[in-house]
């Protein structure tokens, strides 16, 4: 966008696109406006920029190698799936020269996605894609400014309020063939056990599946977790385990020792996700995500411990996120206690 203003000797036009800023003074407003239009077109065409002719697809691949692939496996997998879908479903955008991508291009992507998914999903994807421009501008020198500044993204949605009910959990466990006194022998049963561990520890799926004889000290009721989602912020975590969780984990530990393996679980996070969805759908439990079990657990634990202890259990460094997102006790439940 060009900015025109009256000055002493005529009209001054200012143009800033792709990180390049140009100014000029012309005798009349019309001449200044014509200059601005021509200059802006030249910048967008690359005539004034000394940036490499790399495409968005190339930028994504470089970002994967430098950033995404260094994240925990479960997080990297989810990010890469979104990148794959972005490049596959929007080939024109993927093949466009990176520094020539404009706010209009991104607005078309936004509008197309809003016809298929919720605003919250679009916002989440945008938050993943925008850092590519930050790195490309500051380190790679592939562009001068980010076109994300030129578009309006959907407003953040309200946090989820769904929690699990014991009737739903029993149905899922029964469908999976789980007996909590007998170690799991199938992938479906392991999924049911992961569900129960989540309810009694408030841990994430990836953290649960990493449980092992070498990291879980059941005598001290502590799980040493060196790699996790917030590792870069808080370092290694030591997760306190509830007595109920320890009783469940003893069954898994005995099985792992008998079979000569270190890890308690043999399934991957991707398998757990697919099997949980299958169990949920065939038992007709509507809208319950596996991650909702973490919120359910934290809501139950909030009745037993103070907020600082709860944050230590969950690994949150932002108390507001813990309160606004994961504490899901209903107004009716609170009213019944006061």
From TrEMBL:
GO terms for molecular function: DNA binding. Residues 158-338 form the Tyr recombinase domain. GO terms for biological process: DNA integration; DNA recombination. PROSITE patterns: TYR_RECOMBINASE (PS51898). Keywords: DNA integration, DNA recombination. It comes from the Bacteria. Belongs to the 'phage' integrase family. This is Integrase.
């Amino acid at each position: 966008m060009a900015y025109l203003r009256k000055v002493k000797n005529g009209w001054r036009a200012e143009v800033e696109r792709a990180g390049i800023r140009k100014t000029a003074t012309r005798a009349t407003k019309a001449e200044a406006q014509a200059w601005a239009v021509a200059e802006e077109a030249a910048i967008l065409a690359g005539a004034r920029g000394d940036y490499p002719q790399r495409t968005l697809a190339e930028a994504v691949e470089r970002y994967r190698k430098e950033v995404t692939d260094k994240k925990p496996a479960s997080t990297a997998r989810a990010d890469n799936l979104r990148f794959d879908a972005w490049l596959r479903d929007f080939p024109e955008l993927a093949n466009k020269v990176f520094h020539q991508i404009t706010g209009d291009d991104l607005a078309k992507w936004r509008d197309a996605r809003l016809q298929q998914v919720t605003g919250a999903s679009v916002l989440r994807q945008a938050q993943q894609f925008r850092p590519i421009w930050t790195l490309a501008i500051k380190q790679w020198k592939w562009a001068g400014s980010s076109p994300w500044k030129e578009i309006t993204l959907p407003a953040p949605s309200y946090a989820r309020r769904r929690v699990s009910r014991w009737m739903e959990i029993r149905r899922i466990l029964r469908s999976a063939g789980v007996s909590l006194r007998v170690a799991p022998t199938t992938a479906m049963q392991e999924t049911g056990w992961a569900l129960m561990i989540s309810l009694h520890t408030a841990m994430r799926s990836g953290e649960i599946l990493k449980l092992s004889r070498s990291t879980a000290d059941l005598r001290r009721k502590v799980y040493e977790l060196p790699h996790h989602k917030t590792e870069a912020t808080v370092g290694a975590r030591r997760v306190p385990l509830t007595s109920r969780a320890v009783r469940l984990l003893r069954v898994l530990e005995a099985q792992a020792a008998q079979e000569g393996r270190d890890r308690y679980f043999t399934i991957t996070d991707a398998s757990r996700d697919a099997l949980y969805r299958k169990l949920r759908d065939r038992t007709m439990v509507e809208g319950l995500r596996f991650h909702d079990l973490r919120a359910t657990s934290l809501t139950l634990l909030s009745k037993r411990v103070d907020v600082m202890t709860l944050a230590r259990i969950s690994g949150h460094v932002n108390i507001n996120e813990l309160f606004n997102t994961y504490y899901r006790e209903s107004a009716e439940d609170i009213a019944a206690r006061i």
